[in-house]
Amino acid sequence: MWSLSQLPETQLALALAIFIATFVYEDGATLLAATLSASGRLDPALGIGAAFLGIWVGDIGLYALGALFRSNAVRWPWLQRALKPEAFKKAEGWLAQNASLAIAMSRTIPGSRLPLYLAAGALGLPLRRFARITAICAAVWVLLIFGIWRWLPNLWPGTGMHFPLLLTAVLFAAPWLLGKRLRASVPAAKTSERTSNHDRLNACAL
Question: What is the value of pTM for the model shown?
């Protein structure tokens, strides 16, 4: 495992390392950039730019993989048989209506970005729209983390690192708990719907 002493010394090399690290773990890379900026080792503008570009390029890359899948699907007859046209059209319509909210929510819910961004490319969401939404979300996310570590301590200088650590824990844990709760609520809702339908059938039978 790397230590901070093993990181590159020059500003540009640090920024490049942050950019590359976003392809492995973008939240961790952004947090590293923010803490390096807070310690004075990395210029805030370079850190923000490297983290933002790394995240955004990665998002576009996932979209491109989905679009590549869409363009090559016609070459795989077995896939065309497996995909129901009506289900595909329904998914396209849902994404066209809910893309902004879904992409914004995926930025805060771990594990949701990969399938959603691949689906955005595969379902033909316009690239310009996808790029615009992901750029805004990535910028807000990066600035939020930098705000916690780079600028917030200046407003409350007596808190040391405890306040940024607490806010970062909340920022990372709250979406995970929300996603877990949402995933748990889906089976419960389906079970409730099936029970309600069963009760209605029994009432009709009586």
Answer: 0.75
